[in-house]
Amino acid sequence: MASQPLVQANGLAKSYSAPRRTASPTMALRGVDFAANAGEVVAVVGPSGSGKTTLLYCLAGLEPATAGQIRLFGADLGTLTGDRQADLRSQHVGFVFQRFNLIGSLDAEANAMLPAQMAGKRVDRDAAAAAFAQVGLRGRARFLPRELSGGEQQRVALARVFLARPAIVFADEPTGSLDTRTGREVMDLLVKTAQDGACVVMVTHDLDLAALADRVVILVDGSIHAHLSAPSPAQLLDAFQQVDR
Ligand SMILES: Nc1ncnc2c1ncn2[C@@H]1O[C@H](COP(=O)(O)OP(=O)(O)OP(=O)(O)O)[C@@H](O)[C@H]1O
Ligand SMILES: [Mg+2]
Questions:
Q1: Mutate which of 24, 26, 48 to test ligand 1's pocket (most atoms within 8 Å of Cβ)?
Q2: Which residues line ligand 1 (CB under 6 A)?
Q3: Residue 124 to residues 94, 113, 120: CA-CA distances in angstroms?
Q4: CA dihedral over 185, 211, 236, 152, signed as positive or negative
Q5: Which residue's alpha carbon is nearest to atom 28 within ligand 1?
Q6: What does each of the 245 residues of the chain score in pLDDT, given as a tens digit?
Q7: Ligand 1 atom closest to residue 18's alpha carbon, by position in its atom list
Q8: Mind listing the domains of the chain with CATH numbers?
Q9: How much distance in Å is there from the Cα of 46 to the middle of ligand 1?
């Protein structure tokens, strides 16, 4: 395990100004401390609107923090220019977006190969085919996103990350559009990615999958409510139910 976390947040706060001045600003994160290391899977769970996506965006530098510090690969994001942050992301970070973010005019294979190509990494069509086979998408390489089901698009987004082999994977509900069996297969791939040395930070609503992570963070109303190490599904359910009460 790395001596220093690959990604770390201290006192991370994030507020969004209200759209069209309709209401007061939203405090999406209220002083979050978080760290994740190479070789581990950290799952983030919590009710809808609790700040999970915002946490991933801030950790990856896709949204600027309102307060607090984020270190990604030891670099303080607050001191890096946008270009340097983009370089860092391109080289080391993979992101599976909650809404997939595929490019509509590119077929599935081109979508999957794009981040690796943009980062100057070697990627060929055999590797793409292997990644598609891993996520159960054989025969779909030439399909456009609109010709794929939601679950298939989600798996293209996962193949895209596996192909680029980043040191950190942020995955926002990577199994949200998948059936139980396919979701479990994807989770196994994420666990294997961590066993191969990457750091995986994932958001999920599925407590059975979260229980397969090394650590689980429960986020409630922008704050960390609980932090569990390798919980059993029953322990996790118990901790989660305390949130609902
Ligand atoms: N761009 C934005 N502008 C204004 N408010 C936002 C924006 N993005 C998120 N929010 C607000 O911040 C809060 C946290 O949102 P976030 O998307 O992080 O929640 P989440 O835990 O990922 O929820 P879900 O489980 O539904 O995906 C919500 O109240 C949301 O309305
Ligand atoms: Mg979300």
A1: 26
A2: 16, 19, 26, 28, 46, 48-54, 98
A3: 18, 8, 12
A4: negative
A5: 49
A6: 446 899 999 999 999 988 776 778 899 999 999 999 999 999 999 999 999 999 999 999 999 999 999 999 999 999 999 999 999 999 999 999 999 999 999 999 999 999 999 999 989 999 999 999 999 999 999 999 999 999 999 999 999 999 999 999 999 999 999 999 999 999 999 999 999 999 999 999 999 999 999 999 999 999 999 999 999 999 999 998 888 66
A7: 4
A8: 7-97+170-244 (3.40.50.300)
A9: 12
Q: How far is the CA of 133 from the centre of ligand 2 (A)?
A: 27
Output the CA angle 225-228-230, nearest 5 degrees: 160
Question: Which atom from ligand 1 is nearest to the alpha carbon of 54?
Answer: 18
Kindly give the number of the ligand 1 atom that is closest to the alpha carbon of 63: 1
Q: Whole-angstrom Cα distance, residue 43 to residue 126? A: 31
C-alpha 140/C-alpha 138 separation (Å) is 6
Total residue length of the chain: 245
